[in-house]
Structure formats: structure tokens, C-alpha cells
Amino acid sequence: MQTSDNTILITGGSSGIGRALAEAFHKLGNQVIVAGRRKALLDEVTAANPGMASAVLDVASLDSLAPFAADLIRRFPALNVLVNNAGIMKNENLADGSDNTATAEDIVTTNLLSVFRLTAALLPHFRKQPRSTVMTVSSGLAFMPLAVTPTYCATKAAIHSWTQSLRYQLRNTSVEVLELVPPYVQTELQGQRQATDPRAMPLADFIAEVMEILSTQPNAKEILVQRVYPLRFAAEKGQAAYDPFFTTLNDSMH
Hints:
By secondary structure, this protein is of the alpha/beta class. Helices cover 46% and strands 13% of the residues. It has 9 helices and 7 strands; from the N terminus they run βαβαβαβαβαβααβαα. The chain has helices spanning 16-27, 39-48, 65-75, 101-126, 150-169, 192-196, 203-216, 229-232, 239-252; strands spanning 7-11, 31-36, 53-56, 81-84, 132-137, 175-180, 222-223. A 7-stranded parallel sheet has the order 3-2-1-4-5-6-7, sandwiched between helices. Strand 5, helix 5 (150-169) and strand 6 form a beta-alpha-beta unit. The longest helix is centred in the middle third of the chain and has 26 residues, at 101-126. It is globular. The termini are far apart.
């Protein structure tokens, strides 16, 4: 991916990985648009980063995504990068006999269906650009699930699979398709506990390594920091190694 001279939309851009990516790209001279549900938080981001733009968007409102994309293209005709970063992660107890359907559907809508719809809405425009990029954000948990967050992990596994198919289908076009695969990072995805958990990778370190990969490995399709390798490649070591790793990971997160 070319890391400068882009016009970049980042969903979930008001906090966490989204905001940190937005600020890193902004420093490289890109026009960055951060999108999110809460205008007050978006205003904080743009105030701290003069020249950055914002757009209020609830990705879970699926019917709003196509009109949002059309309006954004009118405002920013040079738009050529989409970072599908917005996501939610919730614990679910599938064994307690309660109905978890509503929680699961919320996660699927935000993490999966919104990615499908927003990408589809922007692709015709992207294909007209000399170069463009669609970046999805999956997770190391796409490859080694955390049992207390089953639907989150399932959506990220689906994003990984879908991204591969999208990349192949667009292989002869100007649209590059990348997948960012974070490890456990110090963000507020699951609240303040995660943001300060010493077991999680510091956000600044994660972003620094991601930007280094993007700038020095222009042909990389999966953006993998070293910290995520054990999760990403766990299955390649075979079932005898995978099973105890799965148990150890899940036991350690209780």
C-alpha cells in the first residue's frame, strides 16, 4: 500500500486502533476522514489533528451505508482508501440457557454485514481510481478463538475468509485488498481493563509496527505484527500443538 497521497476513510475512527491509524496516516500527509457514532468524540479527534475531517456514521444502521458512501464521494471525490475498522466485542455465555440471539446479531451486523455493505457501496468508485485500497480489520482471534467471545471470533474468521475472496476477485483491477490482523492490543474494545492490561500490546507499539510494515513491505497482503504470529499460525503447527495452546489461552483469560 502506498502510505501517502491518499484520501482515507476509517470507520470506528474516534478511538482505539481506528484513531491511532488515522493519526498515523494523517502525519504522512494523507487526507483522513474518521467516521463514528459519537460526534463529540469525532470533534475531539479532528481538533487534535488540524486538517483531518470527520463524518458521523453508525455502521450498524445498514440502510444508511449506501447513502453515506454516495455523500462522502461527493464531498471527497479523491477518496481511494477504506479501512473497515469499526467493531464490537461482547462476552456471551452460550451454556447458561439464555437467549443470546440479540447480542450475536448486533455483533454480526456491526462486524460483518456493515463491512459487506460499505465496501460494496464504495467499490464502483474505487475501481475508477488509478489506485485504491480496501483494508479489513480482522483479529488474531480469527485463527485461535477466545471462547468467551464466540460471535466476535466467528465474525473475524468470516472477515478473513471474505477478504481472501474479495482480493482474488479484484486481482485484475486497481483495487488492492489488505487485511490487518491485530493481536490483543491495549484499547477500550472491552473496557478500561483491556486498555491497561499488561498482557496486551501497547497501542503505540502496535501502530508503529503496522506503519513500518505498510511502508517497507508494499506487497504485503496480511499486515501481521510479530505479536500476532502465535495466533495467526497456530493451526499450521498441527492439532497436537493447537489444542493445548487453545486451552492455555482460554484458561488464562478467565
